[in-house]
Amino acid sequence: MKALTANRLSDGEVVFWKNGVWVERLTDAEIFADDAGAGEAEVAARAQPTVVIDPYLIDLVDSAGFWAPVSYRERIRALGPTNHELHGKQAEGGGAVEALRQAHGAARSSGRVNLIRRK
Amino acid sequence: MYRYDAIDRAVLADRTAEFRDQVRRRLAGELTEDQFKPLRLMNGLYLQLHAYMLRVAVPYGSLSPVQMRALADIARRFDRGYGHFTTRTNIQFNWVKLADAPDILDALAAVDLHAIQTSGNCIRNVTADPYAGAAADELEDPRVWCEAIRQWSSLHPEFSFLPRKFKIAVTASPHDRTAAKVHDIGLLLRRGRDGETGFEVIVGGGMGRTPYVGPTIRAYLPSNRLFSYLEAILRVYNRHGRRDNAYKARIKILVAALGAEAFAREVEAEWEKIGPEGDVPAAEIERIRDAFTTPDFSSDPSTGDFEARRAAEPAFARFVRNNVKAHIRPGYGIVDISLKGIGETPGDMSADQMDLVADLAERFGQGDIRSTHEQNLVLPHVRLEHVHEVWKALDAAGLATPNINLISDIIACPGLDYCALANARAICVAQDIARRFEAPDRAEAIGEFKIKISGCINACGHHHVGHIGILGVDKKGEEFYQLTLGGSGAEDAAVGKMLGPALPIDRVTDAVEAIVDAYLRERREGERFLDTLRRTGDAPFKEAVYAEAH
Question: Cβ–Cβ of B98/A13 closer than 8 Å?
């Protein structure tokens, strides 16, 4: 499973793709089961350069009934910095936040690696 | 402090207006991200994991109370109520919105601050001894030269697009508090045989993925020839630096490839061509010297009840032992403010804490505040009779941790919690180690001990020159940490040696404690950790860390 993420141009906020618009919470994001749908969304997202910067796809795993990024880096992006638990999206708390905190997986996003290679 | 003149202020106003228009054009879609990114970076604006980050230059680590209050105001209005002091003596704001950035630059310019040349392949903020003008062992105040270098290098057309970034340090004390030997250029003020002052010139030090302690290419350069010599070094670098490979583009690679002697010959030949016309006139140096306000020192050597309180209050005595240093004038002390509260984020400071330090500097510190490359602050001129009151106020605000140069005074980069380049976190590792060594008696018994942590090989956390260096790496998709031993950023500069295989995050603090315990077993009277390590080699420490793995 995949989600599409980027940083919002106006404030740098981490955002996720949902049917052509951007939402702030991973729990609200569109989840792609197949590469074709994810790829089409990525192409569409790249056509919004005044809305977001550098959209890329991330891999997800199931964690306690929620979708969580495989990579540690992406979990920190989805939650906020681990040294300030009241900063970032994690400040809201709740089951989805806890599921992300408990998730395990690779430390780096495969999508991000591809992005770096492209640059 | 150096006082800006009308020209300085006009330059900043023009620059901010220019950036405001660039931001407007980007938000309107008139500039692409590829076009805009180098423009925002030239104004210190990075995109990190969660938001934009603005890196503000603190010129050679000197701040006035007015400037500190302005930083507090920015933290409250545009960030989340705090800022982060870095290993470059700058301050970063981690939660900046793009549309707010021009307003922040205006607020900075109003107090003679800016974010110019805090990014990009240019000459960055100059590092100075944070005890400059106060250290008992100082030859002269190096900040005059730092300010002259700042003015000379700011927006210098020939050196705005170097092969890579370029960092200069200046110190005038035999004890190096600037890490001069791991800068692109380190300038050590020396007294010449003729009684005049000059510089030992070190070129090609650095950290990152290829660390070097820089070699001396000139043992003594008369100070009136400094700028032509700097120009010669930078021209040789501009001509031969590896622009084809970003990983090999720093001057350290060029110096190592040519060899220090050959590099020095190239510089001397270029210097000959430039001649004295390339130097800054003495009158201009004097103008800059005069633009520094002189502290209003009292000639009264009395120390009030300083000694009595020190004898009566053990906690105050501990603070004095660790955080107060000898001042060049009788009756004064240098007060180190630790931004390494146990369990806190190294270098972080709240807006309220900034305001408090501004107040204390104004009331007791000649209006002078310094930031250090070890992510702490300094009040360089405090009368000893006032140190107790300063300590009480700092203590109430969580700023009086008596741990300067001790094991919990840890440098840590922002790491994977904020940085887009990091592979692993650094802050939480520092917090965990600090908690383990929280007991102040134990920390003092261990003595000078510098732990430095980086979340990636770019080494913003200076791990190469840590007595224990800790480097976060991505190993099979998990956060692992590589330990190095024996580094030093001081006058005995050295690059640490790798101890063994990287450790998972939950073994790092145990490994540090095993190293400390081995040191306490092995050390001889008066030895620092580094001295013991240099005498014994790393075998006892390797055994201590990896014994259970075999």
Answer: no
Say what the ipTM of the complex is.
Answer: 0.91
Full-model pTM? 0.95
Q: Contacts of residue B479 in chain A, CB cutoff 8 Å?
A: 72, 107
Indicate yes or no: CB of A83 within 8 angstroms of CB of B33.
no
Query: What is the C-alpha to C-alpha distance for residues B549 and B500, in angstroms, rounded to an integer?
Result: 11
Last residue in a domain, options B289, B315, B350: B289
B245's tokens = 């490979």
Pair of tokens at residue B463? 């791990």
In this complex, the residue of A53, A88, A108 whose CB is nearest that of residue B50 is A88
**CA nearest to B427 within chain A:** A83
Domain that holds residue B184: 142-289
* Measured distance CA(A58)–CA(A78) in Å, rounded: 11
Q: Identify the band that residue B371 occupies on the pLDDT scale cut at 50, 70 and 90.
A: very high
Within-domain flag for B299:
no
Do residue B264 and residue B310 come from a single domain?
no
CA angle B46, B50, B51 (to 5 degrees): 45
Q: Is residue B172 domain-shared with residue B61, that is, in the same domain?
A: no
B280 secondary structure, DSSP code:
P
Terminal-residue alpha carbon distance, chain A: 25
Q: Which residue has the tokens 């997986």?
A: A105
Q: Write out the residue range of the structural domain in which residue A42 sits.
A: 2-116
Identify which of B269, B199, B275 has the alpha carbon closest to the alpha carbon of residue B236. B269
| CA neighbor of B226 nearest in space, from B263, B194, B258, B185 | B185
Q: How confident is the model at residue A111 (pLDDT cuts 50, 70, 90)?
A: very low
Q: How far is A70 from chain B (nearest CA, A)?
A: 10
Could you tell me which chain B residue has the CA closest to the CA of A50?
Answer: B29
DSSP string, B63-82: E-HHHHHHHHHHHHHHSSSE
Whose CA is closest to A51, among A19, A79, A21?
Answer: A21
- Do B387 and B327 reside in the same domain of the chain? yes
Residues B342 and B442 in one domain: no
Q: Which of B31, B49, B349 to mutate to test the interface with A (most CBs of A within 10 A)?
A: B49
- For chain B, how many structural domains are there in total? 4
What pLDDT is stored for residue B9 in this prediction?
A: 93
pLDDT digits (tens, 9 = 90+) for B298-351: 889 899 999 999 999 999 999 999 999 999 999 999 999 999 999 999 999 999
Are B421 and B390 members of one domain?
Answer: no
Q: What's the CATH code of the domain at B183?
A: 3.30.413.10
What's the pLDDT score for residue B1?
Answer: 65
| Cβ-Cβ contacts under 8 Å, B478 against chain A | 72, 106-107
Nearest to B372, CA basis, from B142, B118, B177: B177
Q: Read off the CATH number of the domain in which B364 is found.
A: 3.90.480.20
Which residues lie across from B212 on neighbouring strands?
Answer: B206
Whether B146 and B258 map to the same domain: the answer is yes
Residues B171, B266 within the same domain? yes
Task: Categorise residue B304: left if φ over 0, alpha if ψ from -120 to 50, beta otherwise.
Answer: left
CB distance B477–A106 less than 8 Å? Answer: yes
pLDDT for A5 beyond 80: yes
